[in-house]
What does this fold into?
Amino acid sequence: MRSWAAQNVPKLPGESIPLSLYDTSARQVRQTDPGPTARIYVCGITPYDATHLGHANTYHAFDLVGRMWRDAGHEVHYTQNATDVDDPLLERAAQTGIDWRDLAEREIELFRGDMEALRILPPREYVGVTEVVGRVADLIAKLSAKGVTYVLDGDVYFSVSDAPKFGQVSGYDETEMTVLFAERGGDPGRAGKRHPLDWLLWRAERPGEPVWESRLGRGRPGWHIECTAIAVDSLGSGFDVAGGGSDLIFPHHECGASEGHALTGEWPFAKFYTHAGMVALDGDKMSKSKGNLVFVSKLRLAHDPMAVRLVLLAHHYRADWEYVPSLIADAERRLATWRSAVTLSSGPRADDLLATVRARLADDLDSPGALAAVDAWAAEALTAGGPDPDAPRLVRDLADALLGVAL
It folds into this structure.
């Protein structure tokens, strides 16, 4: 599947700082330690509606991760999927009378435009589930050969009793997991399952649903296994970061981690499980099912996309926050101030600013702290000037390379 266009990222002077991130599975901030190539997998959209600000918050967070690694001299191998066949997509297609494939392609194309406008650096592999159904079926067959699956009315389930590490990513107890499983696409009450938390790997053919021929028979993949298959193919096990929104902690990342463990025998499947917070509107988490959405495509048509990015940067990536219109107005004022400051012929020295921005982002992506540092430099430049003719260019470059903001 085609990704989107990348921008050139300026090379910054001086020394970078190793990136530390909160690891959900460890319940603490730890220093990342990638090799020459840093490997990251971020779960993508189910394309049944347009990209909303909550999506943008997630992909922006992991864009900052990639920018920090690139600043440290790493190659970044970034893989993302698109769940271009799944129940919500099929349901929306039926409601609207649009073929599910056309709906998926339309929304994926809009997503590409939103990501490009926000200057989110693209993944090396952008993979649609429909492109890898055979590979997913092969992987399920490998799991079955290891004795961790069973068949129920043609559907293939992973047996949670054969997942010794299950629960270690989320840290949730069984009661909480069962509630969330029901809320987030699971089927804890299905008759015939060995355990309520057993999860679906392969959905056998149903009337009126898309199907693929496979070694498992006619059907299509379950949700969690698709990301495991794509990650294994693209990145291998033990990759550096598995990322997504905090609503993916359970069951999606929990189940995927146990699938990866069963397949490879290695734990953890990813070295870090890192999650972005939820964005609310009118007091509730933005959700396609609730319809309380701020669409990125509409926001960026009415406002400079860099102001939209500054709205995201003004919140710590792990925080839950609520969108209100004053946030975009504040961001537009900040953007105008920064742009005015970097058009000056000289300014205050910016070496310390670069070090501060690096330090703030290296500390679990403290983007609000990084913005405050640039604000202080811009205020000084506009009120008192400065002796350094190279400083405005350096500030433009650091804003671009580390924050993704084009001034």
